[in-house]
Amino acid sequence: MVVIFLFSQQTGQQSSESSGMVEKLLSIFPFLPDEIFGLELQFLIRKAAHFTEYFILYLLMFAVLMEYFTLKRVLIYALIGVFLYACTDEWHQQFVPGRVSAFKDVCIDTSGGVVAMGFIALTHYLQINNKRA
Fold first, then answer.
1. Is the pLDDT higher at 15 or at 90?
2. Does the pLDDT of residue 22 top 80, yes or no?
3. Which of 81, 98, 99 is nearest to 90 (CA)?
4. What is the CA radius of gyration of the chain?
């Protein structure tokens, strides 16, 4: 959560520069078409970062909550936690110069949690079925 907060604390210019560095790194791959570089790539990098941050956050919340609750409850509680933190993160960004708050980012963040939840649920399902076999 601290890492996400620190990324959100960056001004709009600092955030763009970070995305630009990733874009430059990707430019070393000669097979990528020139058209991919530009606003579209920077947009994809930013959204992939949102998704990945919250995917990891879900996994961490899941690990902590498993100490206290059943699997079904943890799957839901961790997702609720990811959603609520995404909401507060977007609210926080309203106060950072050059940043904006967008509900679509909350949806992207939460989708990272949903995919992590699906991954964990599938893993547990497969483990149970392997024990039966």
1. 90
2. no
3. 99
4. 18
Q: How far apart are the first and last CA of the chain?
A: 40
DSSP labels, 103-117: HHHHHHHHHHHHHHH
3-9, long-range: CB < 8 A, 24+ apart = 3/53, 4/53, 4/54, 4/57, 4/85, 4/89, 5/89, 5/92, 7/49, 7/53, 8/89, 8/92, 8/93, 8/96, 8/99, 9/92, 9/96
CA distance 76 to 54: 15
Instruction: Give me the residue label for tokens 């960004």.
Output: 93
| Domain ranges within the chain, ordered by starting residue | 2-132
pLDDT in tens, 30-69: 655 655 555 566 778 778 888 999 999 999 999 999 999 9
Given a contact cutoff of 8 angstroms between Cβ atoms, the answer to whether 77 and 19 are in contact is: no
Taking all residues of the chain, what is their mean pLDDT, rounded to a whole number?
Answer: 84
Instruction: Please tell me the pTM assigned to this model.
Output: 0.80
Q: Which residues contact 95 (CB under 8 A, 6 or more apart)?
A: none
Look up tokens 């893993």; give the residue. 123
